[in-house]
Design a protein that fits this description.
By secondary structure, the chain is an all-alpha fold. It is built from four helices and no strands.
């Protein structure tokens, strides 16, 4: 088994690619401000899942990195909301699609963390 087989990692990849692409259709002044922040936080989700998986032998480390991944989901949602609230991202359908994907990623992470707590 590999982290690449985890649903949570695949969701994290999907949202990070979408956010990466969307961040470059933002107004130019956002490319290096919130655009950069949302790219980094969205990629942090997948990276923390991978790092946690690499430490899965140690339950507390695994849970810690999965928790970091969940915190990055929340950070990414906040950046997305900021872009929408300020009008930098005005496509509400695109916002809803990304938000739904982030919510799914976050909910699956919470469930996965609970499973790790029970099983390990």
């Amino acid at each position: 088994m590999s982290y690449r087989n985890l649903k949570i990692w695949n969701l994290a990849v999907e949202q990070s690619i979408l956010i990466h692409e969307v961040s470059f259709i933002l107004p130019p002044f956002e490319h290096y401000e919130t655009g950069s922040q949302i790219r980094r936080s969205s990629k942090s989700i997948r990276s923390n899942i991978v790092e946690g998986y690499g430490r899965r032998r140690y339950k507390s480390d695994y849970i810690r990195f999965l928790t970091y991944a969940h915190a990055s989901v929340l950070e990414t949602i906040d950046h997305l909301d900021t872009l929408t609230d300020t009008g930098s991202l005005s496509d509400h359908e695109l916002y809803s699609c990304i938000r739904k994907l982030l919510d799914e990623c976050g909910n699956n992470l919470i469930s996965f963390i609970s499973g790790v707590e029970r099983e390990y």
